[in-house]
Amino acid sequence: MGDFPIDLDTSTDAERQAAEIRVRAKRKAGELLAEIQKAKGTRGNIQQVLSSGNLTEPPEDTTQTLADLGISKHQFSGVITSVESFIRRFCILPDAAYFPLATWAAATHLPDAFDAFPYIALLSPAKRCGKTRVLEVLELLTSKAWRGTSATSAALFRMMEDVPTLLLDEVEALGNSKPSEGTQAVLAVLNAGHRKGATIPRCVPPDFAVRNFPVYGPKAFAAIGTLPDTLADRCIHVTMQRKTPSQTVDRFLQGRAKADAEPIRESLVEWAETCQESVRRVYEKMADLKFLSDRDADLWMPLFAVCTVAAPERLGELQQCAVALSGAKAAGDVEDSLPLKLLADVQKVWPTGADRMTTATLLQRLKEIAESPWAAHDLNANRLSAMLRPFGIASRQIRTENENVKGYMRAGMSEAFSRYLPQNGALPETSETTRVNIGESGDS
Predict the structure, then answer these.
(1) Around Cβ 248, how many Cβ atoms within 10 Å?
(2) What is the pTM of this model?
């Protein structure tokens, strides 16, 4: 929740509840920001945090600094909080996912403000983890939403001309180890649609002239397991679990939920129409998000631009969410790739301060790692060399105290560590990340 929550759970009168949300969503920006500033004692400056890429401290003089950026005062400062509260009403997500998902829903109403649009990946280890429910809720909030399954490539590229928000369920089917020609065509459309201006060429009857179909636009996917690597790389990942008996959400009834969501969605539309140019200017002025990798920064920049305009007092909170979700994604990337896991484990077992290690010693240390795959993988000197070679790492003759043998130099490893391992080579604590940041979700 934010500093100005709207409790959707306590009201039993849908019409009164919707009216209350609408009134709150349209409060004057100056009044709400003054209230937040007084309550939180905010510090910093929007212009400074945008240029520095460090968003851990919320901005101080929000009204003035927004004006410095050319952003007009408006009446929609509570709109993101309204969206977040509505999502919380029906969905149980990781704590770090609610606010980003609400910001993403707002961003779908102004996709042309950005060079690229992040996809959302709702992933779970099994069915009944609440993924479909999240898509149903997003359908009521996002721009020109289309929710469904099994769309063909021909349907997709024709649908994307109007830049809808695609909410695709059961996308695990795209991860088949031997994808069909149709699956490959769907993946090509989805992969290309991440960046503005992307098109797919197709021959159009009756004369079969080549026509370029635009495929850019917001997309969210629900899948059991993982997505194909190329698609997963374009996504903000939200890992979901089944809810516990102690976790409760409102019963989702389509008609009632739609009526309750309508005023929130209308506020989002009004906000987007009023603030699109402001969001675009913030996006263009934003420095690199230094706390994220290049790809993840590319994904998160639209959400930070929206947050700067719609909820600037929550920039620090969004940074914490981005770090948590991106860290879990990076850890998953390493675990899912055997060569990357090997590289991470090599760094893990390398003695502090040592400039070289023999191949025999490195193999022994790797196989001693608890629950590592290397003993069962029957890793030997040749396989080790073959798996490290794509990273630009090669064995060589090295001199030890007693002999001249094959081994590796730390200097030859350092560049690969910095290129491929997250957080300057140190893997995120995956178990702690899971316990602290990855919550459990409601039923779908």
Answers:
(1) 11
(2) 0.68
